[in-house]
Design brief:
Helix content: 25-40%
Distance between the termini: 128 Å
Shape: globular
Strand content: 15-25%
Radius of gyration: 46 Å
Number of strands: 66
Number of helices: 50
Structural class: alpha/beta
Amino acid sequence: MGNSYAGQLRTTRFEEVLHNSIEASLRSNIVVPRPVFSQLYLEAEQPSTHNGRTENDEEDEEDGSESNSPPIPYQMKPPPDGCCTTDGFCQAGRDLRLSSLASDSLDLLPGFMLIGLKSPSLPENLLVGAVDHRFLPDERGHNALLGFSGYCMGCGEKGFRYFTDFANHINLKLSTQPKKQKHLKFHLYRDNQGVLVKGAPICWKGHGKIGGRIRQMSSSLSETHAASDEQSSSAALLHSSHAPGSYAAASHANGVAQTSDTPQPLTNGTHAASSSTQPVIIHSGPGRPSTTGLQTNAGPPKKRHKGWSPETSSALLENAGKTPTSSLLTSSTVTANGARLDASATLSSSQRSLSTLSPSGLSVAVPDQLLHTCGLQPVIFKGHGPLPQLTGNFSEVLVSSLLQSCYLSSQTLPRVYQHYGPSPIQPLSTEMQILLTVYYLVQLGPEQVPLIEDLEQIFMRSWRESHLSEIRHNQQPQTAATQGRHYGIEAPPALPGLPQHLGIAPQQPLTPSQLPWLAQLAASSCGEGVVVLGEQVGSLAQGLQQMFSKLMEGRFENTNYIVVIVTASGHETQSCVVVTGKHQCRALAENMFSPNEGLREINQQLSSGEAQELIQFCSSLGQDGDMDFLLDSATLDSNEPSPLSSGQESSEEKSMKNTHSPKDSNSPKDKILPSKETCSEFSVEWRDIRPIQLAVARKLLSHVCAIADSSTQNLDLVSFDRVNFLILVPPSEVTFQQTVLHLWGSGVLQELGSLEQDCVSQREAERYVVKMDQSAQVRVDSLIQEAHSNSYTLYILVHDHAHWDVSSASYCSADSGLGLVDQLLNSRRVRDAPNILILHVTSFPFALQTQFTRISPYNEIHWPPSFSNDVDLYHERTRYFGVSELLESTRSGSSLPLMRCDSSFESMASALEERFPKLHSAVIRTTVLIHHYCTALMAVSGRIGGTHNLHKHTSVETLGIVQELLSAAQQCPAHHGHMILLRIPSLALAAWAHRRLSRVRRQLGLEERFEIILGNPSQPLNVGHSFIDQIKLWLKIQEADWVPRTYLELEALPCILILTGAEPQGESLPRSLKYCDLRVISCSYLQRTTLEQELGLAAYLLKAESRSPHNPGPGSDLLESDAEKLSSTDNEEEEGQENESSPVSSNQPLQSSPDVAAAAAAADPSPTQSSTSTSPKAPKSTVETTPSPSPAHTQLPPQSSSQPFVFHQPSILHPSQLIAQTYSLAQPIFQPQILSQSQLLASANPQLYFQTLPQHQIPHAPPQQLAPARPRRHPSKSTSSSSSSPRASSPHLSCSWARGVSRPPSVLLPRSLYDIITANDGSGLPRCTSFLPHMSVAWASSFRPLLSKMMTCTEQSLYYRQWTVPRPYHMDSSNRTEGRSDNFHPRRLLLSGPPQVGKTGAYLHFLGILSRMLIRLMEVDIYNEEEINLNVQLDRVQYSPPNALWPDPDVMKTLPFDYIVHDPKYDDISLVYCPGYRPASDANPAHQEEVCLRRRTTRIKLSKYAAFNTYHHCEQCHLYLGFNPRYQMYESTLHAFTFTHLLLGEEIQLYFIIPKSKEHYFSFNQPGGQLEGMRLPLAADRSPDCIKSPIFTPTTGRHEHGLFNLYHAMDGASHLHILVVKEYEMAVYKKYWPNHILLVLPPVFNGAGIGAAHFLIKELSYHNLELERSRRQEGSGSISDVWPFIILADDSCVMWNVVDFDARNSPVEHSASLKQVLQHMEGCPDLAHYGLCGIRKWSSRVLAGPNQREPFSRGHLHDFLLLNVDRSQNVQYDQNRFTCHDVDFTLRLHSAGLLVCRFNNFSVMKKQIAIGGYRTFIIKTKMMDVPTSVGPSQYVCAPDSKHLFLATPAQLLLEKYLQHTSHKLFPLSTKNYEHPVLSVDYYINLGPEVTVCFVSSRPHSVNICTTGLLFSGLLLCFADAFVTPSFLKKFTFLKGATLCVIGADRSSLRQTVGRLELEEEWRFRLSDEFQTANAKEDRPLFFLTGKHI
């Protein structure tokens, strides 16, 4: 009934036109109806097609058209008289050429763009025009509106709505019809000079032949003819134009989804979507599929005034063909009027109310016997308007508000569209929602259940495409911050069933009167599947009454959905949907149960005996007898009662107890006794820590450190000295013991010091793990109290499996066991405790990632991928195989998928569900499953007589599983086997299954073959004694009372594990898991967490030698029995494929991986042998098969060992058995006919049935010739595994367990879940990822995008944080702070990773390294070096007693001064000559240099008196921010201070930055507040809490690492601490140390060394001392009373020590505060006599050596000095020095006659700081682009030479040059201690090989006696007037000694030589004059060398 008219009304009646138009619309395979009413009155273009191309396509072509016909002449409209017609000018005479307007300033209207037009008369130039950007395509050639809007840039004329008019105005003078696609050629833009230039070409490709406009083919294609596969495949490649993120249309030719990432073009604000071209099957009715051919839609009209019907003819809904039994989302239910009412959706008060109650007087009576008569419980979905009240038998009707919530959600616009005031953007109308709902229901298959997510996405897509232009316009003002990867509604993907565009334009809304017509016509396309009650229905009550009446009459027997529509005039449209399909009603009814309610319903049915009839029905084997009778005949003990009767349960359990013991078995020949033989291939690795776990542990540690390093100070790691923890796990006994096992094996307890090393009891670890039951309250409360009392311990609360309980404590009762996490971890006591950190660990973090989450996104740690671009990042021995890899295996097609469904099982379960409509599906499916297992055990055991054909009463999958279970242990000398997991959520069903299987096992005498374990979360494991003995032997356990407590300890035990519980609770499974049977899990609760939890049970760690988990390789999923797997295990629907043969023949070449083939060839020289057996009693044998002559056919399966039982005597396999097996592999798959139970099983397993035929009925043909009789056009994915791929493991392994650990387990799923999970959404992700993430959360809006396949874990987290909100019973629902967008807990982290990947080991290792880090944070690297250059031969005299408190000045004067430098940091400097000292003869300069590079350090724990850097935070240090609470913290002022110094020759201006809280240390003049100086105390002042000496710390480059926090070191004493910084570092030091006083050096010293800093400190202090004395003198005080001492401290001094002489045995050194050290030194009675005091540098071996006997000594002082600025006023630090400035200063101070004293009973510890400091020198060239390295020889050059100048201070170059080259400069001095170099008034380092003798030229100076000493050289540095010729003549030099004179310039050198008369004794050459390699402006230094005559 094609629509043959061309769009005109002609003479056809209105009704006929309406009917034909709508029917033509319905024949297209889209959800959205076509705009038929606009076509009734407007002329539509539907041109005929020729060869697939429309006649109007010529208009879209350019000049290079494929048409050979000449173009039609076009006559342009003549211009008005008087107008300009010149080319390049408009009719107004204005120039439009780009060359003329390039530099002009052009005003552009908003929304318009400058474009360049191509004129045929001006090929070398472009014309400039302005066009509205909406009518131009984007960079991909799409999204351009039809039509034109522009104005002239010459004269400014506006209003051109047609390009023809615009072309006339600008004088294009065309010979063909003007087209904007042809003449609008280039974008124009302005370059950097502001010139208008030609830009990128305008991309019009979106409107070409292929890009976006696909013309509509003739709609009269016959619906009975489908396009060929070849046409479909090629067309799909061209025309499939789904948007990114949409569902890909599956090509029926090859089964491969074809997608196109090209976006659809925009036309008039809607998507002109292209069509999918494959044939689609629409189930028009039961058993009547119809096929629609290739249909495309008409393109956009060529004229804007004509109507156009944009239509998409895409394929059917993806989930209509791929998810036949998916269901609605789960929801909580309430009971109202006896009926279960869905109350899942929380409705906003601002939304319009849809009341549940009906108006008074309107009610509907539910007929009696409804369930009995119809065999179903109808489900009524409330829609629009109030639902009438149900009366009568309302308990047999279910009412849900889920659809109503969907309507409301889709009518609530996002906030982004509510800020624009009056807007054309409106939500979908009620009528459009109803019509879209009808179309969605029409598309559903007969077995498919509607999904609310699909309907929501349909509404969202339709709304977007209705207002696409307005949405784009409103989204344009978004700022750049919204660009990039955006998770808003920017890119809506096309979803399954989602309309490609909205056919009804917003200007022509759907009216209520049109709705019933369209809805009924839509429903008519699917026969009776959907019925619309809309005509003559005045109210919902009337419609429902009609529905019930017809339902009772049987008129809706083939109807799945009934839509009631009420469109009364003057009233709002009302609607509801009634589900009447049996399968749909059952699924929806069970969906309305909460999980707990569903379990209660199952328990009620079992306890009431309702399932007894089902059990009896399944026990009957038809003609083969009764199962119980056959079992009784197979055993001596046959008096066991029926398992499901409540009265017989106790007797059954009693019987089980009497017969369960393995010792009572009457079949000793079948026992597998504990073998003494060992298996060399068996190993247990669950205790090993893997590299990726170490990486995750480090990531956790780095996040914890990031919290501590943040400015919020929420975690002070430095204040903690140890770690304690508590692990919270779900209330599962196995999970609890499993965590204890991991904890005990990790060694964390020993590392944390919690247990002794020799402690052997595992029970001790249980106190660190707690189950989240009622006992957890006491344990957590105890930890909180302990944390409150131990503030120095960091407590980690690890919440493992955090997704398990997210319930709010206020919504849960005390006995439910839920809400404990909220009650304990979210309490205020835990939240406010500063030393408690919470770590959530989960595989499914979605419930914790909502809008109100407590976890910051920055505190999430995601498990990293093991591979990146196929590169193994961690080089592990194992590889993870998880959920994503399972899904990938279903698409590989190279072998039998690891995840599959069982068609035989599904067929029988469906038949029984129809037979028993009142029973819960879980009861039916569990009964069928256990019946299959029992039958398979009977068939495989061989105990049942051969006359009974038991194979046909079970499925092939189940039979193969049982064969594997029984045969695996026979192949290993140690009897290792496999585990089979049966997942049965109901505890009652699981207990019954356990009893039933145990009974069958006992009656068959198989009690010693395998164990059956009931995995009850609330109970410990119960394993038989014989199996425990076997496990102890395997694990080498010696404990007599040991029993397995975890599933991991069941490794290699052949067993069936029945895992029960509503959901898994974190139990890990062993690597011997072979099959994961999930065929009876619930299909009702479709949340992502629920589904991935169940699939996560099969997660596996493969051996690394296997192939990549992303590409498991052929046969990687196969084990021994997989070679005999038959093709009735199907993964696709088999309807319509009856009598079609399998596509796989037995001569198909086997594809094997190279490593497997090589291993097989090496292990077996004759790979043509294979052992096969299919008969239960068949013995083991080998059969010769003929290899194919082709080399590719020589790879045959390795040896198969899948026999039920393996006997060791050889025998020959009967030929009929081999032929039966081989022939069965190529048999067709018959469509199961649901007749009876036995017939159902026989038809579902034709291959097994075929094996039981007599031999004469089996065709005797060679295996290679048993090809299928007729090839199948659409091959099934489930082919024989033996002919599709071999085994991937090496066949030489004798242990079945060892072969299995390199292959993941197989997973069996229900058909409905399999179809949902294996389907993909448009982004390539599995369909289940778009489901609601968790039951406790809800979507924030229907206007949400889908997840993208390209999203990382972090981006997925952000997605859920934006688009999900917690439900009221979620624990995070209360975590919302007004006025803030987040309320994150600062000490809460989230670790997420795939299930069973090793998260427990990762966080346990994290606890260990966290503890080690805290210990390391309390430790620092201290320099621990012995003093150097010690002279042990000296006879020392004891000058003072060892315990003397203070030095005596008179004694100190008699003590000789030690000229030798002993500090190890000066190991590379020149020795200072000292009489009587003899250097060690074995001194090795190379060794010394090595020591210098690698100085010795020791890790020492910080004491409580340590100095800290900026990373230290504690509560006490907060007081250090300011002692005066009146001042605001961090408030400081800048003060200038100026003084004059003679050496500098000018005023010095320094700056002080003084915090307000420290201003009392300074004096200011009151009027102006100008800084006058520092206040100094008096010498007589005594205060126990005050340090009198100001502390100056010069520092550079250590703003973070410098130890400036002296609060703890001072022990609370008041002190003045001043940081001396360089001018360019002022800002950064002020930022990091805002509470400190900063002294900023002048800018001229930015490049100076440490000498300049000490020089300015000393001179400033003396100047301040004089000012303070003047101020005191003005106040009538004594000037001698002012305290003259200052402290010069290095910025790396960390701790101080004092020697305790009161110890019992020997003196002991212990920690002391800096306050104690300074107060002791300041308390010295005669301190004023000393010029400089200091303390010893710490070394661990000082007290042990003989040299530490004097408490005081005279010698060099370093690092920590107490300087008397008064007595040392005439001795200054050299401001130019970079190195050895303290050695030089001490020598000159001593020579001036001042006392220097070192307090040896005190020591200072220096921390190793590798960053910054004054010893860091960088010598580089002035030319920055020259990367050459500079050696010491290049530091100097000849004067006036062309040399590479260096950007380094001259003094530093000189010092470094002399240090490294002095052995060449002073050759006689090298290693010649007896003949040193004489250095006058100046010590400089000449390298470790040269000795320097220091003398002072000052009068009355103290010098060593040089009589008789011959010097090898003379060094004169900047000699002043005190150096005279007579002074030099006192010294004697060797002949050939070297002279070196250093001066500031060349003239000073000559003056020095002349003044000192050096030429008399020294010979000079012109070539001996040098300068430092500095430019002239850098003021180089000069030196002159000479030789002694």
